[in-house]
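Continuing the batch. This is chain 6 of the set; chains 1 through 5 are on the previous pages. Same settings as before, nothing changed between runs. Recording input and output for traceability.
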Amino acid sequence: MNQQRPKIAIIDANTLSCIGLKQLLQNFMPIAEIEGFGSMTEFQANHPEHYMHYFVAMNIFLENRQFFAEHPRQTIVLTMSLNDSSHLGAFHSLCVNVPEHELVRSLLILNQEGHHHGRNLPPMPKALTQRVLSNREIEVMALIVQGHINKEIADKLNIALATVVTHRKNIMEKLGLRSVSALTIYAVTHGYVDINKV
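Output for chain 6:
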């Protein structure tokens, strides 16, 4: 496995699902190389041994269970129902048929279970680990990812509403993020917010 740049595979015939999951996973692991495959044949032709994780659609998993049984710690099965996970035994599962905030929370839990404090991952480049936000921006970010609206944040921090809006804009620009989901991932994975508060 390439220790410099971890590789993650998404094996799903649904192209739109692959694209969406790839975007979310890229927020978790900006240094990872994430590739989508429309079939098991396509995936197996691209050196499966080089991937640290396989996110695989339920139907592909069931058709190729023997392959994945040999890699249970690497395999995350993409399900459409929370009930599907009870039939998977030792495999991790991820229900993708939920609202975005729930999917992000599930990914955060999976990440903490498997890679708490970066365990089993190569070190992040220094540029990605440096602190880029001010103390006040960190306070605003924490309240945003906990679900507070701008007015509530202004009241809690005793600052003007316009100041909150400015902080919010600056946070997103500094981190290069475009959504609250991406901001939530950043805040939890960098230890600014406890997962139980999102």
